[in-house]
Amino acid sequence: MTRPLRLVAVSGGMQRPSKSAALADHLLDLMAEEVGGERRLIELGPLAPHFAGAVWRPQLPATVERELVAVEQADVLVVATPVFRGSYTGLFKHFFDFIDQDALMDKPILLAATGGSERHALVIDHQLRPLFSFFQARTLPLGVYATDKDFIDYRLRDEALIQRARLAVRRALPLVDLTRHAWPPQLAEAAAA
Q: What are phi and psi of 62, to 5 degrees?
């Protein structure tokens, strides 16, 4: 029996619709085109009222627990956050505070962010990469940053950004392939078939 790759994206956008969710969904689609698998988009905006006041994971309702487990069990993770005052949002960080600190070890993670202007583009390297380094995740070599002008009606429109997203996914493929090889031998063989 084969197990498809579990591709999970987390969007830190608090509004709906959200440019961060649109970017995460676009990257998830590109990844699914390349490697197949089951895709899941987790939007923190609608979920936030259910975890914002919690301090410990046992306090969380089942709806939030399901999403945390999906992140922990993902084979590939895409994370996208809007930039808020020079960093990811507090609720984005709060959500990841509930993730088991060993659950993302060696997991390939594609980093993405959205902001009002290019001046926040370094948030990927200065904020997101250190956060996921704590988890000992394999942050993928190329992040994707988008500004408001890159979207029309919450869809990517800038051709250079679309090409960068494709390149980021292509450059991720060797690490995704390593993930497949880390499976027990019977699952790795079945997935390759």
A: -60, -35
